[in-house]
Amino acid sequence: MTIEPIARFESPFRSKFGIPKQSGLVEELEGRIVFEPKFRNADALRGMEGFDYLWLIWSFSANSHQAVSPVVRPPLLGGNEKMGVFATRSPFRPNGIGLSCVRLDHVEWETPRGPVIVVKGADLMDGTPIFDIKPYVVYADCKPQARSGFVDTTPIERLRVVVPEALRVKLGEKEERVLTQVLSLDPRPHYQNDPQKTYGMPFAGRDVKFRVENGVLTVVDLVDESL
């Protein structure tokens, strides 16, 4: 089988750092699906607006090395316990293929780049190649009583996020809300916990500088990347 990207994803994240580790964790996080020129045909999207959610099949294109280990260390478990790669959603897989469920916000039908799909809650980096799009169908895809392995017994912990007023004025209300939700998921690598270290996360054209201590993440600067 030979597959090719049908589209690219546009996201506030220009690097892997800070991207939510699963789709839906930041529900308001907006992104756009822009089709490659040969697939910019509105007929291919006919009927799409009748669905609330979409499945995206995409490539872990930013992974720089081939995955060879049969086990990985899920961040949800603090990176301290190994699980089989096929029992996790790790991006380091024999075939670097991702699967995400995103909420369809709307379709921009008339743009210079053809129809563009606007979605929310995605966990994709800017420029990610998308191989396919399928509608989410409740009777087939929703299994509310299903077990979720170690995920069931390991709740997601969120940090308290503090954005000083002097920096809040640089953000719009929606942007601040989305950024706060992203930061609350703790973008740091699981093996780093230095309260004196200042981290930087590219987000929506800014370099977000922050520190973490005692469960509180404090934004210390917002630097415009164009400067």
Task: Describe the structure in your own words.
The chain has 227 residues and is mainly β. It folds into two domains: 7-141, Elongation Factor Tu (Ef-tu), domain 3, CATH 2.40.30.70; 160-224, no CATH class. It has helices at residues 138-141, 165-168, 173-184; strands spanning 7-10, 30-35, 53-59, 71-72, 83-84, 97-108, 116-120, 129-135, 160-162, 199-203, 206-213, 216-224. The strands form three sheets. The chain has a six-stranded antiparallel barrel with strand order 1-2-7-6-3-8. Strands 9-12-11-10 form a four-stranded mixed sheet, with helices on one face. It starts with 6 loop residues before the first strand and ends with a strand. The model has no long low-confidence stretch (mean pLDDT 94). Residues 3-145 form the TsaA-like domain.
SSE order and pairing:
Elements: E1 7-10, E2 30-35, E3 53-59, E4 71-72, E5 83-84, E6 97-108, E7 116-120, E8 129-135, H1 138-141, E9 160-162, H2 165-168, H3 173-184, E10 199-203, E11 206-213, E12 216-224
Parallel strand pairs: 9-12
Antiparallel strand pairs: 1-2, 1-8, 2-7, 3-6, 3-8, 4-5, 6-7, 10-11, 11-12
Give the helix/strand class. Answer: mainly beta
Helix content: under 10%
Question: How many individual helices?
Answer: 3
Which architecture of the largest domain per CATH?
Beta Barrel
Overall 3D form: globular
Q: pLDDT below 50 for ≥5 consecutive residues: which ranges?
A: none
CATH class of the largest domain: Mainly Beta
User: Which sheet architecture does the biggest sheet show?
Assistant: 6 strands, antiparallel, barrel
Order of helices and strands: EEEEEEEEHEHHEEE
Radius of gyration: 19 Å
Q: Compute the average pLDDT.
A: 94
Instruction: Give me the CATH superfamily of the largest domain.
Output: YaeB-like
Q: Tell me how many strands there are.
A: 12
Strand composition percent: 25-35%
Under CATH, the topology of the largest domain can be stated as Elongation Factor Tu (Ef-tu), domain 3
C-alpha termini separation: 45 Å
> How many domain units?
2
